[in-house]
Design goal:
Strand content: over 45%
CATH class of the largest domain: Mainly Beta
Largest sheet: 6 strands, mixed
Radius of gyration: 31 Å
Distance between the termini: 130 Å
Number of domains: 3
Number of helices: 0
Order of helices and strands: EEEEEEEEEEEEEEEEEEEEEEEEEEEE
Helix content: under 10%
Structural class: mainly beta
Number of strands: 28
Shape: elongated
Length: about 375
């Protein structure tokens, strides 16, 4: 039988009202047991109730009070995260972890009663393994994100797995699972009705403690066009705590954004023009959230790596959370074009990938011919 030590961190040094509490929820011999332990100080430690059965969910609640900004207590630090969905507006907390299925009523109807806010929650257990799982890409943005054609990496650390033959028993295996969710094409969030979600059949099992890594993972969203995949993937370290119950002891999610594309309008490949038509423009789709995109013009056939003259009207820059679309004009004056001949306009994008070197999105090659031809004839008449 073990207890957990809960460390409390306070917001201010003002005297605290004894309204905040720690809630301990656990499953003992198939029965859900709930303990509420009041917190009357701003800092220090309290001991949990004995940890029995498979483990416990420990939550910290604090009441909002005009004396505090915004809550009297900030957090509790013990172990890993639990999966707890809180719906304070319905006065209900739904817990589904360690096989615990519990509806906890936080407040009643009728006269107004202040409701406690769930500040933090953790999962602890006498024989529950510990794990940390991190996903990283070339883009250092948080939360993790990458482009559909680029790899990302995973680091998994596992501790406290039971050794085979340990007389104390315990959990001796961690399973790495991989799930996905498609995003709404306009809202860039998972579909609210739960559609477009699933799990991959492939899973990996770990039976030893240690640090594990995979330096090159590619997204596997089942999209019609892999480079246009838009959604997220979640990797979870899962342990089986009974025949029909599992718990995730670590997880991490990475967003997958589509590769951009562009169309040049108003210019046709191989056609002759006296200059760049005023209606010429570029239609850009799915520009990466952190990107600078522009068009450049240079004399000659298309050649990757060529540095041309940047068309100022075409430059568009984003530093945001989701892909963007843009329509930009191609404004090039006659003085900006050299002698007649073959010219190429390229659309390039710069992102956290490819070492932030420009990547070609599309191009068009055409002829500039400003020669004026006059067709005429001289006629004479005699009388």
């Amino acid at each position: 039988m073990k207890v957990a030590v809960l460390a409390l961190i306070a917001v201010t040094a003002m005297p605290a009202l004894g309204v905040d509490f720690v809630r301990q929820i656990q499953l003992v011999q198939g029965q859900t047991v709930v303990y509420d332990m009041p917190v009357s100080g701003l800092n220090g430690q309290i001991l949990s109730k004995p940890l029995e059965g498979d483990g416990a969910v420990i939550q910290l609640y604090a009441y909002q009070d005009e004396t505090y900004d915004p809550f009297s207590l900030l957090n509790v630090g013990v172990g890993g995260l639990a999966n707890v969905n809180v719906a304070l507006d319905s006065h209900l907390v739904n817990v589904n972890l360690l096989g615990i299925h519990l509806n906890v009523i936080l407040g009643g109807s009728g006269d107004y009663q202040p409701l406690p806010q769930l500040i933090d929650e953790v999962t602890v257990g006498a024989h529950l393994p510990e794990a940390t799982l991190t996903l990283r890409s070339e883009d250092t943005y948080n939360p993790p994100r990458t482009r559909a054609d680029r790899p990302f990496s995973m680091n998994l650390s596992i501790r406290k797995l039971a050794e085979p033959g340990d007389p104390r028993g315990g959990i001796g295996k961690v399973t790495l699972e991989r799930d996905f969710k498609f995003y709404h094409p306009d809202l860039h969030v998972p579909y609210p009705n739960g559609s477009g979600q699933g799990s991959y059949e492939e899973a990996y099992e770990f039976t030893k403690n240690g640090n594990f890594a995979d330096a090159e993972i590619y997204q596997a969203l089942p999209a019609q066009s892999p480079t246009k995949a838009c959604g997220e993937e979640t990797f979870s370290a899962v342990v089986k705590i009974s025949n029909n119950r599992e718990a995730a002891i670590a997880s991490s999610t990475i967003q997958i954004w589509p590769v951009c594309d562009a169309t040049i309008e108003g210019l046709q490949s191989g056609k002759r023009y006296p200059g760049i038509p005023p209606q010429a423009r570029v239609l850009c789709n799915d520009l990466y959230p952190d990107s600078v995109t522009y068009a450049q013009i240079y004399k000659g056939q298309p050649n990757l790596g060529t540095t041309g003259k940047i068309i100022g009207s075409s430059v568009v820059s984003f530093n945001t959370y989701a892909p963007q679309d843009a329509v930009v004009p191609l404004t090039v004056t006659e003085n900006e074009i050299g002698e007649d001949g073959t010219y190429t306009i390229e659309v390039l994008t710069v992102t956290p990938f490819n070492g932030r070197h420009p990547e070609r999105v599309t191009y068009v090659t055409f002829e500039i011919d400003r020669t004026i031809k006059v067709n005429g004839s001289i006629a004479t008449s005699e009388k």
